[in-house]
Automatic annotation (TrEMBL):
Domain N-acyl amino acid synthase FeeM catalytic core: 35-192
Signal peptide start and end residues: none
Official protein name in the record: N-acyl amino acid synthase FeeM catalytic core domain-containing protein
Pfam families xref list: FeeM
Amino acid sequence: MTGTGTTNRFSDKLLELLDRVEYRRVETGEDMEEVARIRFKAYKMADILPLKGNTLIDDIDFDSHAYVFGIYYEERLISTVRLHHVTPEHRVSSSGSIFPNEIDAFLDAGMTLIDPVRLAADPEVLSEMPAIPYLTLRIATMATDYFEVDRCLQLVKPQHAAFYKRVFDADTIVSPQKNCGNYNIDLTLMATRTKETLPPLYKRFPFFKSEPYERRMMFARGEEMPFSPLTVRPTARRAHFGQGRVQIGNAGYAG
């Protein structure tokens, strides 16, 4: 089978999985408790962070430019991620606390960033569904589109660098470093040039695509979105094939 054929079959499989996925923006104490539970299980398994103090839920989970999401598969929470929209005027981010000089260099040049951190997947489900990272990182791809940022960051283990280079064409900004903040692991900082990378990414992996109204429901706040949708159903299939319906909670909406 050709590489293109393999990619197409993989994308078809991911689109099928997305049909049973819901995204939920986490803004209530009850949902935060679920996020803390998934983080605990994932961090304990991988020994990423010390499981004490404010590791599981910290102050910047509630920052005005932070977005915490739960990914639900058949109504079961399987993973979570926190995204920071980082701008020259609002510099709060996890990657910035670890590699401040490199992040400030981007911001001082007038760039805006998406910083996806606190990625955590239920280890029991991950062993059965290795596609969870793609389902989770799709949210970061949507954020780069919605906020029209210049870079999407990746603060990751060195062992994962090849994945981010292969899938997201990420550049290495900081080579692997030891003793990074509270982390128990070595870390490297990477960054994707989003404006160059998104068009070919969507062509190779159409499950990363989304409709504008899905991105708005995921990230809009204030007057643009006076309520937080209970759940958001992915629109990748509609964005790819140009048909279908988007759902908010239990209600269906024609596009």
